[in-house]
Write a structure and sequence with these properties.
By secondary structure, the chain is of the alpha+beta class. 44% of the residues lie in helices and 19% in strands. The strands form five sheets. Strands 1, 2, 3, 4, 5, 6, 7 and 10 form an eight-stranded mixed beta sheet that branches. The longest helix has 23 residues, at 809-831. It starts with 7 loop residues before the first strand and ends with a strand.
Length: 971
């Protein structure tokens, strides 16, 4: 039995062999708080504490509380301990999440001292936050005069969450999701927008925020989860000393009830904002949703995923096939599938790019597919393929970007908080075993489809575009603010001015950072751990193998250095990589190919990438990569499919190509409001280096604009045939270019992989040695404003600098972190109200880049970019601030990925000159940077006359800023 701290009772433990972990469950004697520990031989220890948070309106109270809780606490009374700790830590992850019915505070780190530091700060933040009213006004919402200090100017709303949610709700898919949940859940918490609706966020009072914390953030409503090699008892000692010993148990009834079920289906008609577009044809979303079972029932949850997979997993799945091939819309809706983030899950199917008059036809199409599945079933191998995908997802050790331990914890958190047994929420192998027996009955899937068909709690939602909606919303906001101002006397107006002055003073106050714990450069590991591969020849092809602990999975890649291609083909490379895994190959059409891949692989993907040389960003290398993964038992089948796809891909299925282009367009357009800062930075950098220019054309704003034009042109005579010919030409040149292989798996199975690959690749295209691809020169300095439908802005400015091996590159990297930590965060987020802002140095393009994210401002933010440099140069700065910038960079460099992900990073790094030696050398140079270095490089490279500026905004906002001198480009 596992050892518990005296304040905790041990409840039970289970081994989960499929995940190589042990699950231990404990309960705190004094408060009833539950602790689940996932014991693993992994030094990347992780923690989270979560609370059931059940809002009863759309004021965003849970979301704003999540932000405000991190703005100082009893033990750490500084204004911004969360962001300060990101700079005083070697964390591999730090964040906080607000879901629809819970709020969680997670972190992970490999350093034990750092873990203890972060745990102390997190415990104090959630259980004893300061909840200063000024922090509520900063993070939530407030009114200020548009001209500071001038009561005759207009009132405006400000607030970080307010602007974050304005940006989030600019995305039509977000509006679609919120409207669907509003209608599926007419009477319980999911009816509301837990993140906050910008129209209702100003309704929240400071007193309501404090009351919500007092009720919800109590240990009796808390679940603690930990992962890694630190024993549970050690964690519990911290929990007890840091928080729990100061609380008694409370009888809290914070639970989500079952929704009252509809007796007959409901039809809803609503609108979303589409700015700057008068043509609304083919822009309507039509979706049908059903409310299903409770996620605490593990078998019901897996049955839901099984049915969703059978219907929608790939192009050969019956419902996805119907949605992809119908003329009623352009593409399956992004909402298609099972959502299990609420206590009662729901299933959605539908189309985007449709028209309102098709609503009944779309619903009938969906119902007809379900009726056919209910009466005829589906092939048994289709059901087994979906079960195979569920098994593979359970077994794979992921963790690239989000630590594996936290993934396990967050995956099980929702069901656990609603009362599910933790072992059933985390270990799905027993449920999969039972499903494997159940699917042997041909009536099983029929029964699931029949149950869905007969479920009357169904909503048909039609979301029409409205070109006037944003204007109407802005007018309503202006009227509300005007009414507030009209009701103010002089004293009230002075109070607004005084509050703004108080907040500004608080934002500018210099707290003593030494009240917070820290790690220093002395705690940084001496060496960067990088896996080593074995290089061989396989049938005269270079083959690199990595022995990694992949938990029974294998990974394979075919890698080709791009040959010289005609310009028209270069533009199509990203589209080619998206389409290739979705098409047929050999004798198989795309439906057969999709079925085959689902049955034996965990997915096959293609990509193309370009990076500047380590010593000259004007030179570059580009590679095409075909990637796949599978369970060990299917490694030969994986290799055969990848070989077939590489050697005999089909581009003769013209209707399929047409469908995929339309789908890709929809997907790419939706990225603008979610990744606008990345797109703006890529555009601003595009004039500075060939690789940056090409990235902008491939995956940036220019690429989205080109894809829209291509999609619009494909209905012209012979246009589709020409595209297919161009894609086939790309494929022919790639298949004849020099290639190499990458293999990743457990050491004892690598020889078997090599043997199967040797047999399969006996038949291969002859290699035609030719000229390698070289990106054309960059166009030079830019000043652009890309306009689209958005309620917030994204700003970027880029400067040409140097390559990775240049002596100034490490200082530029530290400079970016220094400015982000110490000036830009305060100026752009706290004072400017943007959701985010900062700077980065991109060693691939040699560009130093400023950015803002979901920003209410334009010109002021661009001025803040410039003023940050002046602030740096005109002041003396503590060594501590430079050290914090370095710590953050080294923490990111040292962040572990998944076993397979680290091997891929090493292999592809080598291709581009980022060898282990170069990476370790760069890390050591980062550690040697000093204040004089960052000032020198700022003065040398960040010159206004060399800057490129790109913003993403809407046309109306741009018209108000002619002084910026930006060329308008309509997206």
């Amino acid at each position: 039995m596992s050892q518990a701290h005296p304040a905790f009772d041990f409840i039970r433990q289970h081994a989960i062999p499929a995940l190589n972990i042990g699950l231990e469950e404990y309960r705190h004697r004094g408060t009833g708080a539950v602790h689940y520990h996932l014991a693993a031989e992994d030094d990347q220890n992780a923690f989270l504490v979560a609370f059931r948070t059940v809002p009863q309106d759309s004021s965003g109270v849970a979301h704003i509380l999540e932000h405000t809780s991190l703005c100082g606490s009893r033990k750490y009374p500084v204004r911004d301990p969360f962001f300060m700790m990101t700079r005083r830590s070697l964390n591999t992850f730090m964040n906080a999440f607000t879901a629809s019915d819970w709020t969680a505070y997670p972190f992970a780190t490999r350093n034990r001292k750092d873990f203890d530091n972060l745990l102390d700060v997190y415990l104090d933040a959630v259980f004893f936050p300061s909840l200063n009213e000024l922090d509520f006004l900063q993070e939530g919402h407030r009114v200020e005069f548009a001209e500071p200090g001038n009561p005759d100017s207009e009132l405006v709303y400000k607030g970080v969450v307010y602007n974050e949610m304005k940006g989030a709700m600019s995305a039509p898919v977000s509006t679609l999701y919120q409207t669907m949940t509003r209608e599926l859940f007419p009477s319980i918490t999911y009816h509301h927008n837990s993140g906050g609706d910008p129209a209702h966020i100003p309704d929240l009072s400071y007193q309501q925020l404090k009351a919500f914390h007092a009720r919800h953030y109590h240990p009796s409503n808390a679940v603690f989860m930990t992962y890694g090699d630190i024993p549970a008892a050690a964690h519990q000692a911290h929990f007890e000393q840091g928080a729990l010993q100061q609380f008694d148990a409370l009888e809290l009834n914070i639970a989500v009830p079952d929704e009252q079920r509809y007796r007959t289906p409901v039809q809803v008609d609503d609108h979303y904002a589409l700015d700057g577009e008068e043509d609304t044809e083919d822009k309507t979303h039509i979706v049908v949703g059903w409310l299903l079972d409770n996620i605490t029932d593990a078998e019901a949850l897996m049955r839901g995923h099984l049915l969703s997979g059978v219907l929608l997993d790939n192009g050969a799945s019956p419902l996805r096939h119907a949605l992809e091939t119908t003329k009623l819309g352009c593409a399956p809706s992004p909402l298609c599938g099972l959502s299990d983030s609420s206590r009662e899950m729901f299933f959605v199917a539908g189309l985007e790019g449709s028209n309102p008059e098709h609503a009944e036809a779309v619903e009938n199409l969906i119902l007809a597919v379900l009726e056919k599945v209910a009466s005829e079933g589906v092939p048994q191998d289709t059901v087994e393929a979906v079960l195979h995908q569920l098994e593979l997802s359970q077994r794979e050790i992921s963790g690239d970007g989000f630590p594996f331990g936290l993934q396990l914890m967050v995956h099980g958190l929702g069901p656990i908080l609603h009362g599910a047994a933790a072992i059933e929420a985390i270990d799905i192998d027993p449920v999969l075993a039972r499903l494997r027996e159940q699917i042997k009955d041909p009536e099983f899937i029929k029964g699931l489809a029949c149950k869905l068909l007969n479920n009357p709690h169904r909503v048909r939602l039609v979301m029409r575009p409205d070109p006037q909606l944003s204007e109407q919303q802005s007018a309503a906001e202006a009227a509300r603010l005007a009414a507030i101002k009209a009701g103010m006397d002089d004293a009230a107006k002075q109070q607004v001015i005084h509050m703004a002055e108080q907040l500004l003073a608080r934002q500018n106050q210099q707290d003593d950072p030494e009240v917070l714990p820290r790690v220093g450069l002395e705690d940084v590991p001496a060496e960067l751990s990088i896996p080593t591969g074995q290089q061989d020849q396989l049938l005269e092809m270079p083959a690199t193998s990595f022995a990694r602990g992949t938990n029974g999975l294998v990974y394979q890649q075919v890698v080709v250095e791009l040959p010289a291609l005609a310009d028209e083909l270069v533009e199509l490379l990203p589209l080619y990589t998206e389409l290739l895994p979705e098409l047929g190959y050999g004798e198989l059409d795309y439906l057969q190919a999709q079925s085959q891949q689902a049955a034996v692989t965990g997915g096959i993907g293609a990509s193309v990438g370009i990076r500047g040389a380590v010593d000259d960003v004007q030179r570059d290398r580009s590679y095409f990569t075909l990637s796949g993964k599978a369970l060990l038992r299917n490694h030969t089948a994986l290799a055969e499919i990848m070989h077939s796809m590489f050697t005999s891909a089909r581009f003769d299925e013209l209707p399929r190509i047409r469908e995929l282009v339309a789908q890709e367009r929809m997907y790419r357009e939706q990225r603008v409001t979610s990744a606008g800062h990345s797109l703006a930075m890529a555009a601003a950098s595009s004039g500075l280096a060939p690789n940056a220019a090409l990235q902008h054309r491939w995956s940036g704003l220019a690429g989205i604009k080109a894809l829209k034009a291509l999609d619009d042109s494909l209905d012209e005579p012979k246009a589709l045939e020409k595209l297919a010919e161009q894609l086939a030409a790309i494929h022919q040149q790639l298949s004849q270019a020099p290639r190499q292989l990458l293999l990743i798996g457990e050491a004892e199975h690598l020889n078997a992989q090599r043997d199967s690959l040797s047999a399969i690749w006996q038949q291969r295209p002859a290699i035609q040695n030719g000229t390698a691809f070289a990106a054309p020169a960059a166009p030079g300095r830019l000043a652009q404003a890309w306009t689209t439908s958005t309620q917030v802005n994204f700003c970027a400015r880029a400067y040409p600098c140097v390559a990775a091996e240049h002596e100034d590159a490490p200082a530029l990297t530290v400079l970016a972190a220094f400015l982000r930590n110490n000036y830009l965060h305060r100026a752009i987020r706290e004072q400017g109200g943007a959701y985010g802002g900062g700077a980065s140095f991109d060693v691939d393009s040699g560009a130093f880049r400023f950015y803002s994210y979901r920003d209410p401002r334009l010109g002021e933010t661009l001025a803040d970019f410039d003023q940050s440099v002046q602030w740096l140069l005109e002041n003396q700065h503590e060594w501590r601030l430079v050290e914090e910038a370095i710590l953050g960079i080294v923490s990111n460099i040292d962040k572990p990925g998944s076993p397979a992900g680290e091997a891929k990073k090493t292999f592809h790094g080598n291709l581009h000159g980022r060898t282990p030696e170069q990476r370790r050398r760069y890390r050591a140079r980062i550690l040697a940077v000093r204040e004089a270095d960052i000032k020198r490089v700022a003065e040398t490279y960040l010159k206004p006359e060399q800057a490129s500026t790109v913003v993403i905004t809407d046309a109306q906002t741009l018209e108000k800023h002619p002084e910026l001198g930006l060329e308008r480009v309509k997206l």
